């Protein structure tokens, strides 16, 4: 089939304002939107910039907004978007645009680093593995799927209003270590997110959960953190 | 474009996959380290690794590092350097416990120990029966190790330069003293002056059309080493993984067969019983890939077409959800199939490069005479230690990355503090500026994507699972023609400075075109079949003439070939049957 792609364009070096450009592309129903973007870049317009790497939903590079919804271009198939007259592709909202679909993710990664995304195991290092029960390990099953694509953060209405809000993905990473039975700094971690810009900033809009391409129960995880704060710190 | 940025560090690590990050963790405490990567660390290709990491922990059934070493040697069809395989197998348990201590969330057994599962070519008692040796975290083992090592780097305050591509090595009097990198955000040229450089730039599966590899896997580091006249080793050995999703190449991990998945032809027959009677679907990858190609050639592909079925329907929904959830979701998303109900169409896909930058056991890159090149290290898929020989076993790559990434880091910590800093040549980035200017001046001709597509098709067709002299020679002619076209008519559609991915892809294409030629020349020189290198015209392994590594290097403008002996310590070569 042939499709129209209406794509957000902006080069801050030369453009005074963003604009949209429309491209026609032939595509199979089972192809990825990423394939279409590549075809546009390779065959029609080399000046179109976007990120990509793995091509199958495990690296988080190609998160964009497709027909108003944040998603991975490599995980969205042509048949999922073909109903629209024109497929609208835009950069992730809430982030500064560097060029076309490429946004500045530094503030996002900064927040991820802020939650101290590493295990603090204490001084005693056993010779073999630390034991962890299958049930304890299971608590992490869903959150370790996060690929830091930032779709959730870009969709969160709180983030849009308040750029100090930690945001869903960094909270998911906080959860990852708060609930790891091997970590020794649970209290400290809980205290760090026990703020209005931390876990309590979340107002349960569920947008993050709706868009997460890895189907992580983001809102639920944040609520678990809140409950744990009540339990451990109060 | 004309700005120059100069950075001075003790060492520069290029690449933020597991090899680069593990080396960074090791050196962060003792040296001033800069880590440069084309992508944000967590977006490196290592994050795609699914199945697991090998170590004879013996958590589920008896296992030993000797069996692991033997499997690695046999899996590599006796081209594996046995001193390297011994280091790998002996260090494996330590390496996995270390990862656990750093926080990797491995799946667990009921008694709380790390869970393990079966994988291709992993056996007990030197080939008797499959053994559970792969430690895993569902089917996203690579991703969680990547995230964990990244966290360790955050904890150590490591300085990362993301979205910078290294486009040249700085070499002065045979000493490597830095790299030149291009910043994608601005197209600025950065010069990194260092006492040592570690290349951890990963593989180059993008030389082929159908591949499980990410877009960034274009072999830039390997290309640069070759371009400076240093040798590459065993470049003919390209691994095709048996189970790529049909038409897409996206991988269905061997873990699927490790958990009990079965390959079937159009008659529903479990055909691996005929090719590998003892371990069947869990034979080494080259063996299974050839079996699939044979089935297809003999008309037993599904509906007579070029794929077979991977059947997981008997595993049950729960097991699929718990241990193979990512691949179940790939199958659902890309094929619209529920693997609990229907079999998955699969075909071999280019997956892993056994060859690469020749190194010693400490990650030091070697010259043609086998002497360490001052200032140059390599680790991970871009390196050839050679621990995988002619064919890599599943789960041995992640292990290779953390074992040899760490060793390279240790060696740098020991040596670099006493090393002198070689002065930077005044014209260090001159060649790069010229290369960029050349690419940017032409306003018409052929687009990089067109040449890349032709390269990938040709390599796939004539240098895939099966090869022949005439095919390789034809391909060589094609690839050299493409190189000519690249030199004379490639042009950029976009010549701006911001995130010029057009420019990035044109630079990467030069790596691909060169490595394609190097693979073909190496493959044409090996007139035997061994491991992943399978010659229709020379179907037997020929130890008498070819039990040696291939070296390939550039002398002036000419490609030259050499050989290097294989280290054989414990296991004498014998016929390889599974
Ligand atoms: C789908 C899939 C599944 C796999 N599953 C397993 C498994 O279960 N078990 C296993 O053992 N192995 C597995 N492998 C193999 C294994 O994942 C790879 O061999 C391994 O990840 C390579 O790691 P690396 O550190 O060498 O490089 P990579 O992880 O590929 O990283 C390369 C790095 O170099 C950077 N880079 C490249 N070029 C440049 C440049 N010019 N300038 C700056 N930076 C650059 C990239 O940005 C990247 O950070 C799998 C591979 C695939 C494709
Ligand atoms: S649930 Fe919380 S984090 Fe998620 S979108 Fe709503 S407010 Fe944001
Ligand atoms: S939680 Fe989901 S949407 Fe958010 S960054 Fe992680 S994977 Fe992406
Ligand atoms: S390209 Fe990696 S998630 Fe889409």
TrEMBL record, chain A:
Cofactor binding description: Binds 1 [2Fe-2S] cluster. Binds 1 [4Fe-4S] cluster.
Pfam families: Fer2_3 (PF13085), Fer4_8 (PF13183)
Alphabetic keyword roster: 2Fe-2S, 3Fe-4S, 4Fe-4S, Iron, Iron-sulfur, Metal-binding, Oxidoreductase, Tricarboxylic acid cycle
Domain called 4Fe-4S ferredoxin-type: residue spans: 136-160
E.C. numbers: 1.3.5.1
Catalytic activity: a menaquinone + succinate = a menaquinol + fumarate
Annotated metabolic or biological route of this protein: Carbohydrate metabolism; tricarboxylic acid cycle; fumarate from succinate (bacterial route): step 1/1
Entry's Gene Ontology BP terms: respiratory electron transport chain; tricarboxylic acid cycle
Source organism, top-level taxon: Bacteria
GO molecular function: 2 iron, 2 sulfur cluster binding; 3 iron, 4 sulfur cluster binding; 4 iron, 4 sulfur cluster binding; electron transfer activity; metal ion binding; succinate dehydrogenase (quinone) activity
Cofactor dependence: [2Fe-2S] cluster; [4Fe-4S] cluster; [3Fe-4S] cluster
Broad EC category: oxidoreductase
Every 2Fe-2S ferredoxin-type domain range: 12-95
Sequence similarity: Belongs to the succinate dehydrogenase/fumarate reductase iron-sulfur protein family.
Subunit structure: Part of an enzyme complex containing three subunits: a flavoprotein (frdA), an iron-sulfur protein (frdB), and diheme cytochrome b (frdC).
PANTHER family: SUCCINATE DEHYDROGENASE [UBIQUINONE] IRON-SULFUR SUBUNIT, MITOCHONDRIAL (PTHR11921:SF29), SUCCINATE DEHYDROGENASE IRON-SULFUR PROTEIN (PTHR11921)
Annotated protein name in UniProt: Fumarate reductase iron-sulfur subunit
Originating organism: Desulfosoma caldarium
UniProtKB/TrEMBL annotation, chain B:
Domain FAD-dependent oxidoreductase 2 FAD-binding: 10-398
Gene Ontology terms: biological process: anaerobic respiration; electron transport chain; tricarboxylic acid cycle
Domain Fumarate reductase/succinate dehydrogenase flavoprotein-like C-terminal: 452-578
Keywords, alphabetical: Electron transport, FAD, Flavoprotein, Membrane, Oxidoreductase, Transport, Tricarboxylic acid cycle
Membrane topology: Peripheral membrane protein
Keyword Flavoprotein: yes
Record NCBIfam families: sdhA_forward, sdhA_frdA_Gneg
Residues where Tele-8alpha-FAD histidine is found: 45
GO molecular function, one term: flavin adenine dinucleotide binding
TM ranges: none
Binding site for FAD: 15-20, 37-52, 220, 381, 397-398
Reaction equation(s) it catalyzes: a quinone + succinate = fumarate + a quinol
Names of the cofactor(s): FAD
Active site (catalytic residues): 285 (proton acceptor)
Subcellular location: Cell inner membrane
Pfam families: FAD_binding_2, Succ_DH_flav_C
Protein name from the UniProt record: Succinate dehydrogenase flavoprotein subunit
Binding site for substrate: 241, 253, 351, 392
Pathway the protein acts in: Carbohydrate metabolism; tricarboxylic acid cycle; fumarate from succinate (bacterial route): step 1/1
Keyword Electron transport: yes
EC number: 1.3.5.1
Chain segments annotated as coiled-coil in the UniProt record: none
Cofactor note as given: Flavinylated by SdhE, about 5% flavinylation occurs in the absence of SdhE.
């Amino acid at each position: 089939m042939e499709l129209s792609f209406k794509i957000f364009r902006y080069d801050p070096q030369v453009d005074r304002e963003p604009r949209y450009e429309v491209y026609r592309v032939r595509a199979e129903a089972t192809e990825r939107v990423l394939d279409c973007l590549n075809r546009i870049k390779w065959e029609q317009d080399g000046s179109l910039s976007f990120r990509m790497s793995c091509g199958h939903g495990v690296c988080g590079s190609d998160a964009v907004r497709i027909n108003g919804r944040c998603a991975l271009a490599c995980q969205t198939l042509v048949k999922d978007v073909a109903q629209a007259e024109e497929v609208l592709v835009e950069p992730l909202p809430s982030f500064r645009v560097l060029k076309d679909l490429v946004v500045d993710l530094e503030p996002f990664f900064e927040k991820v680093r802020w939650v101290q995304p590493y295990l603090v195991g204490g001084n005693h290092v056993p010779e073999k593995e630390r034991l962890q029960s299958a049930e304890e390990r299971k608590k992490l099953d869903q959150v370790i799927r996060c690929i830091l694509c930032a779709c959730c953060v870009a969709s969160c209405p709180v983030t849009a209003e308040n750029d100090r809000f930690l945001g869903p993905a960094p909270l998911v990473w906080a959860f990852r270590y708060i609930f790891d039975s091997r970590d020794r700094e649970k209290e400290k971690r809980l205290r760090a997110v026990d703020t209005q810009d931390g876990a309590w900033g979340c107002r349960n809009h569920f947008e993050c959960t709706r868009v997460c391409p890895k189907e992580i129960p983001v809102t639920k995880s944040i609520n678990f953190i809140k409950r744990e704060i009540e339990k451990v710190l109060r | 474009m004309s700005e120059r940025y100069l950075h001075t560090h003790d060492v520069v690590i290029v690449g933020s996959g597991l090899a680069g990050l593990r080396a960074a963790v090791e050196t962060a405490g003792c040296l001033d380290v800069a880590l440069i990567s084309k992508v944000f660390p967590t977006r490196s290709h290592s994050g795609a690794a699914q199945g697991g990491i090998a170590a004879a922990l013996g958590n589920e059934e008896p296992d030993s590092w000797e069996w692991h070493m033997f499997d690695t040697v046999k899996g590599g069809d006796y081209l594996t350097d046995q001193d390297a395989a011994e280091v790998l197998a002996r260090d494996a348990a330590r390496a996995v416990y270390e990862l656990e201590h750093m926080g990797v969330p491995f799946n667990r057994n009921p008694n709380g120990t790390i869970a393990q599962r079966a994988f291709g070519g992993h056996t007990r008692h030197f080939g008797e029966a499959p053994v559970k040796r792969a430690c895993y975290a569902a089917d996203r083992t690579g991703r969680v190790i990547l995230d964990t090592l990244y966290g360790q780097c955050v904890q150590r305050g490591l300085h990362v330069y993301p979205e910078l591509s290294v486009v040249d090595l700085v070499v002065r009097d045979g000493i490597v003293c830095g790299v030149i990198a291009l910043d994608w955000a601005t197209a600025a040229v950065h010069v990194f002056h260092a006492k040592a450089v570690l290349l951890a730039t990963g593989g180059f599966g993008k030389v082929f059309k159908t591949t499980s590899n990410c877009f960034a896997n274009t072999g830039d580091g390997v290309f640069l080493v070759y371009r400076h006249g240093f040798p590459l080793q065993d470049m003919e050995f390209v691994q095709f993984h048996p189970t790529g999703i049909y038409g897409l190449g996206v991988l269905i991990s061997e873990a699927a067969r490790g958990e009990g998945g079965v390959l079937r032809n159009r008659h529903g027959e479990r055909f691996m019983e005929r090719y590998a009677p003892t371990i069947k679907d869990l034979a080494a990858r080259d063996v299974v890939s050839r079996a699939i190609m044979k089935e297809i050639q003999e008309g037993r592909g599904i509906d007579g077409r070029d794929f077979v079925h991977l059947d997981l329907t008997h595993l049950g929904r729960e097991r699929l959800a718990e241990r193979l959830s990512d691949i179940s979701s790939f199958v659902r998303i890309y094929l619209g199939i529920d693997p609990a109900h229907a079999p998955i169409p699969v075909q071999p896909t280019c997956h892993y490069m056994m060859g690469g930058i020749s190194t010693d056991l400490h990650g030091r890159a070697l010259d043609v005479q086998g002497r360490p090149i001052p200032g140059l290290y390599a680790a991970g898929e871009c390196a050839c230690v050679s621990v995988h020989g002619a064919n890599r076993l599943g789960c041995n790559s992640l292990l290779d990355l953390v074992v040899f990434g760490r060793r390279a880091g240790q060696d740098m910590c020991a040596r670099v503090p006493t090393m002198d800093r070689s002065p930077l040549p005044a014209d260090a980035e001159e060649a790069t500026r010229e290369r960029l200017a050349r690419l940017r001046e032409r306003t018409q001709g052929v687009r990089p994507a067109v040449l890349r597509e032709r390269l990938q098709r040709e390599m796939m067709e004539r240098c895939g699972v099966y090869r022949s002299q005439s095919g390789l020679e034809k391909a060589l002619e094609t690839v050299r023609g493409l190189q000519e076209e690249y030199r004379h008519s490639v042009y950029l559609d976009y010549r701006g400075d911001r995130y010029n991915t057009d420019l990035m892809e044109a630079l990467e294409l030069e790596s691909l075109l060169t490595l394609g030629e190097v693979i073909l020349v190496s493959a044409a020189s090996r007139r035997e079949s061994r491991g992943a290198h399978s010659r229709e015209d020379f179907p037997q392994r020929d130890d008498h003439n070819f039990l040696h590594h291939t070296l390939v290097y550039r002398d002036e403008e000419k490609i030259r070939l050499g050989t290097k002996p294989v280290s054989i310590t414990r296991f004498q070569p014998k016929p390889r049957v599974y």
